[in-house]
Structure formats: structure tokens, C-alpha cells
Amino acid sequence: MRQEKRHKLQLFYEILCAIEEDSMRNEVARPTHVQHFTRLSYDKMMNHLQELEDKGMIHRVSGLVAITAKGKRFIEQYDQLIKLIESAGL
Amino acid sequence: MIRDKLPVAELDPNVLNPYLLLDAGIAPAVSLVFTAASVFLSLYISRHFFQSYLFSGFGYLLGLPAGFVFLAASFGLEQLGLLYSQSVLLHPAFYWLQVAFQSEALALIALSYYYKDSDGRPVRIRLSDIGMMVLPLAMVMVPMLLATSELASKSYISYPSLADLGLVMRIFNMAVLAYIFKNTVVSLVRSANVRMLYVPAAFALLWLEQYSLVMTYFDNSAFAFAGSIVARVAGLALFAYVLHAVTSKRRLEIEAREKA
């Protein structure tokens, strides 16, 4: 089934949510689990993870990923944005 | 010079600032309270949308904060018009600016709804897009050109002409608000979310404000004017309430999750 093209903000949000969810179960997230949740190709996901790390939203230690406070704030802000847009009928 | 000494009612048979229809003893206080509330609510709404724009960078969102700032400015100009109601020059000048700012504000808000499906992606320009881009410019140009053409032929701005201009711009405003209302109702039907009913209701109240002001133009009724200011504050308060509820609910959810 063809998937609708996702905006970069939405991709970041989905990746960060996947990391947060996996971290809740196993303390840190595995990139393969994140890939499974986000339905991205491995190469694309690694590029996005690099970008998120550069922005300080995640940190990676020996192949595992953890979300930072900045990443959690991004999730909160994105949720607010979506709710604001929906409630305003935009 | 003689005009400076004439009472405002004689100069202003069409009542540019409807607060003058209220009792002179209470008009300044009523005006101050409703203007302060309207300005505060408009800036509160604007702040929410501006933060969303800063976060997302979605260009189409920018019309809302800009529009609500213009709306707040128009309420401030209305208050200044009342403060300078005895000034032959400033009273019509503030009215003129108020009318232009209000129409500009609503046109900017309408632009956000028009471009809502772009999601920050580049859009293909069609003829209707050009029409929508020209709309906010027209909202400023029409009142400016009409008033300045009047100034070119006479040494002062004619009150009846300005009142007529106000009527035309209010009808423009009603058309723009009807467009926004239609858009929000379509979104409501698509999402089937009852909570979204508040936003079309808020725009319906702002439409009612404009309609009441049109009624005030025809019969100088203080009752219609009182209805217009109540409808305006209620509409803005409803919109602000929705935004507050949406953002604070999310914060509570996060706090609860962190505690858990």
C-alpha cells in the first residue's frame, strides 16, 4: 500500500516517539526497533538519527539510542501544534 | 476653524464611533473594559499561533498571528477614536485606520485557511491564488484610496462618506468571515470532532458582530451596538478558550505521564 509522504517534522516526531516508547520498555532504544515503528528504510532512518543527534534531541551510545530533554520537549511541542491546528480547523 | 467648535453629533450624524451612542457618563468606561478585553484576547490568540509558526515554520500559519495582531490594533484605534471624539481631524482618521486594520486582519486570517492544505510545501499558483493574494491588499487599498481621494477634493474627510465606507468594509468583512466559517465547518465535518464546533461558533459570533454593526449604521441603535461588542468579546473568548484548553490539557497529560 502506498504511504502518504510525511513532512520532516512528522518524521522527527514519529522517530522520537518510537525511541521514547522503546526506551520505556528497555531503558534505551534499538535502531532496528525504531525502524520497525517508523516504517523507514534503514539508511534514511540513520540519516534522520544523525540529524536528530546534531540537534541535541537524542544521544547515541554504542549503537543504542536515548531521547534527551530537548527531544521530549519537541514531542510536547509537536503534539501541541497538531492539537492547535486541528482545533482551529486548519 | 468653525468646525472645531461644532458638537460632534452635528459633525457626525452617521456616528463613526458607536460608543458615542451610549450614555456619555458610561461610554468611556464601557469602551475601555471591552477594548482591553478584546485586545488581550486577540493578542493571546496571536501568541499561540505565532509560537506554532516559530516551531513548525509552516508559512500558512503566519496569517493567523498577524491577523489577530491587526485585529487588536483595530480595537485600540477604536478606543483612540472615542478618546479624540471632539477632534475634527483625529476622530475620522482613527475610524478610517480602524476600518482598514480590521478588514486587513480578517483577510490575513482567511489567507491562513485558504492555504491550510499546503503544509509548508510549495504550492502551484492558480488564478484563484492570485485573487486571494490581492484580497488583503485590496482591503487596505480600498479604504485608503477612497479617503485620500476625498481629501484631495476637500480640506477635510466627509463623515457620511467615511460611514458609507465603513458599511462597505463591514459587508466585505462579513463575506470574509463567512468564507472562514465555511472552511472551519468543512474541517469539523471531516474530523467528526465535536470539540471543533467551538471555532466555527467563534467565527459565527464575529460575523454577528459585523452584522450588528451594519444594523447600527442603519438605525443608530445602541442596543444593536451593545450586541455587537458582546458578540465580539464572546467570539474572541471562545477562540481563546479552545486554544487554552488544547494546550493546557496536553501539559497535564505530560505531567501525569512524568509522575507515573
Question: Keywords, please?
Answer:
A: Arc Repressor Mutant, subunit A; 4 helices; globular; B: 260 residues; mainly alpha; Rhopdopsin 7-helix transmembrane proteins; 9 helices; 78% helix
Task: Give a summary of the structure in a few sentences.
The complex is a heterodimer of chains A (90) and B (260). By secondary structure, chain A is mainly alpha-helical.
What do these coordinates show?
The complex is a heterodimer of chains A (90) and B (260). Chain A has helices spanning 8-26, 31-38, 42-54, 69-87, and strands at residues 58-61, 64-67. Chain A is mainly alpha-helical and 90 residues long. Chain A has one domain: Winged helix-like DNA-binding domain superfamily/Winged helix DNA-binding domain (Arc Repressor Mutant, subunit A), CATH 1.10.10.10. In chain A, strands 1-2 form a two-stranded antiparallel sheet. In chain A, strand 1 and strand 2 form a beta hairpin. In chain A, helix 1 packs across helix 2. The longest helix of chain A has 19 residues, at 8-26. The model of chain A has no long low-confidence stretch (mean pLDDT 84). Chain B has 260 residues and is mostly helical. Chain B has one domain (2-259): Rhopdopsin 7-helix transmembrane proteins. Chain B is built from nine helices and no strands. Chain B has helices at residues 2-5, 8-11, 27-56, 63-83, 90-114, 127-153, 159-191, 198-219, 222-259. The termini of chain B are far apart. Residues 1-9 of chain B have low confidence and may be disordered. The A-B interface holds A 7, 9, 76-81, 83-90 and B 48-49, 52, 55-56, 60-61, 64, 112-113, 116, 119-121, 183-188, 191, 193, 195-196, 198-200, 242-243, 245-247, 249-251, 254.
